[in-house]
Design brief:
single chain; four-stranded parallel beta sheet; 4 helices
Length: about 110
C-alpha cells in the first residue's frame, strides 16, 4: 500500500513540518515501504493532491500533515474513493478536529 503525506509547510510552529518530513524519511528508510511527500502551496491544494492520487485507484493511505484546514482539504479530496483512507498527523496550533474523534493508531 502506498503512503502519501501531504504537508502544509505553514502549519504550526516554525520548523515543525520540516522536522516531521525528516522523521518520515527516516522511518521508511528503516522499515521500507512505498511513500511520497507532497507540499501544499495554497488553500485547497491538499484536496487536489489527494484526489489526483485517489483517482489512480491503487490502495492508499493519505496523511494530512497540518492543521484543521489541511485535514479538511485532504478529506474532501478522498471522499468517494474506497481505495483511500485518511490519516492525520497534527501539525497545526489547535488541531480541534482531532479533539472530537477517537484516536486510532495503526502500525
Amino acid at each position: 500500500m502506498k503512503n502519501i503525506f501531504i504537508l502544509n509547510p505553514h502549519a504550526g510552529k516554525k520548523g515543525h513540518v520540516q522536522k516531521l518530513e525528516k522523521e518520515i524519511h527516516s522511518y521508511f528508510q528503516t522499515h521500507g515501504g512505498n511513500y511520497e511527500i507532497c507540499y501544499t502551496h495554497h488553500a485547497g491544494e491538499g484536496k487536489e493532491i489527494a484526489q489526483a492520487h485517489a483517482e489512480k485507484g491503487e490502495p492508499l493511505r493519505i496523511f494530512a500533515c497540518g492543521g484543521d484546514g489541511s485535514t479538511f482539504d485532504v478529506l474532501n479530496g478522498i471522499i468517494g474513493y474506497p481505495n483511500a483512507v485518511l490519516g492525520v498527523l497534527p501539525c497545526g496550533t489547535g488541531n480541534d478536529f482531532l479533539k472530537y474523534f477517537e484516536i486510532k493508531i495503526i502500525s
